């Protein structure tokens, strides 16, 4: 059934709200100076650090978030709703508050940090802190996507596998995970994109040391004060990366669902 035609009015406004600011950013780019700005040492260092830490954070989100999503979708225990709400809190938490939460937990005088420091492990204001901050804000995206995919799964194939003698591990790896692979892929890409754009929690928990904790969003923020053209050029890089990553996965999942 085709949707009512009048829906195009608010839909068009919604598209303009998103697209017009991006066009404004693109129109502000000085093409003549774009390449030198993008290939400067500070820009390349920040971009490589962002990509490296985002890949590690996304890997952690998959390893930790996939089991959690499966348990939330299939498990039944007291307090399950409260746990789901807590896991999703970083989605709505102001980034600086997330950074403070990490700092008061893993900082030198934090809840766990002082014990880690006593054991010779300092996390805050290090590259590890960047990865932890990115994982903290990106994990809910993967959990939410994968949990929704598992909940919408037709369980008859799993039940058929069980009747044929497949154990829980075999059903999980041979039936469930292949069926929810599009949801896992979508969640992973959203988590990667969120980690790549993380700013507030990283600045609060990890600081801004060039080559160690200064990711691309932090470099954009600093360049905005001294070189607005460089900040705009680097912003364009983030926009292009996010568009390519999210767009390619969205097209893939749409084709799979068709």
From TrEMBL:
Keywords: Cell membrane, Membrane, Molybdenum, Transmembrane, Transmembrane helix, Transport. PANTHER family: MOLYBDENUM TRANSPORT SYSTEM PERMEASE PROTEIN MODB. Part of the binding-protein-dependent transport system for molybdenum; probably responsible for the translocation of the substrate across the membrane. This is Molybdenum transport system permease. NCBIfam families: Mo_ABC_porter, modB_ABC. It comes from Janibacter limosus. GO terms for molecular function: molybdate ion transmembrane transporter activity. It comes from the Bacteria. GO terms for cellular component: plasma membrane. Belongs to the binding-protein-dependent transport system permease family. CysTW subfamily. The keyword Membrane applies. Residues 47-247 form the ABC transmembrane type-1 domain. Its main location: membrane. It is a multi-pass membrane protein. The chain crosses the membrane at residues 7-29, 49-73, 85-103, 123-146, 175-196, 230-251. The keyword ATP-binding does not apply. It is found in: Cell membrane.
């Amino acid at each position: 059934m085709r949707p009512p035609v009048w829906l195009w009015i608010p839909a068009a406004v919604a598209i303009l709200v998103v697209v017009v600011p991006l066009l404004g950013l693109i129109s502000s780019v000085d093409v003549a100076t774009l390449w030198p700005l993008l290939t400067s040492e500070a820009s390349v260092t920040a971009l490589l650090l962002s990509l490296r830490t985002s890949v590690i954070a996304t890997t952690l989100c998959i390893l930790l978030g996939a089991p959690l999503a499966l348990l939330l979708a299939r498990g039944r225990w007291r307090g399950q709703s409260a746990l789901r709400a807590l896991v999703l809190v970083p989605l709505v938490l102001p980034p600086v508050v997330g950074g403070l939460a990490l700092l008061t937990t893993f900082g030198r005088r934090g809840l766990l940090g002082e014990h880690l420091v006593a054991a010779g492990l300092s996390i805050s204001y290090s590259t590890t802190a960047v990865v932890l901050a990115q994982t903290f804000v990106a994990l809910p995206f993967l959990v939410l996507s994968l949990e929704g995919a598992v909940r919408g799964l037709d369980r008859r194939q799993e039940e058929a596998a069980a009747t044929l003698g497949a154990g829980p591990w075999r059903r999980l790896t041979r039936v469930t995970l292949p069926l929810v692979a599009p949801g896992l892929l979508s969640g992973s890409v959203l988590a990667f994109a969120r980690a790549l754009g993380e700013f507030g929690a990283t600045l609060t928990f990890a600081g801004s040391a060039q080559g160690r904790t200064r990711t691309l969003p932090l470099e954009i923020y600093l360049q905005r004060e001294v070189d607005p053209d460089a900040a705009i050029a680097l912003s364009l890089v983030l926009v292009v990366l996010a568009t390519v990553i999210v767009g390619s996965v969205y097209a893939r999942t749409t084709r799979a669902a068709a």
